């Protein structure tokens, strides 16, 4: 069984990577795919 801390770290890492990809897509013109991060 994984410890809760390890599960939280994995989840936060996934959220961070998705946020980074969203911010990268926001730099491109005409992209409105990640409006929740604006």
UniProtKB/TrEMBL annotation:
Name of protein: Uncharacterized protein
Organism: Danaus plexippus plexippus
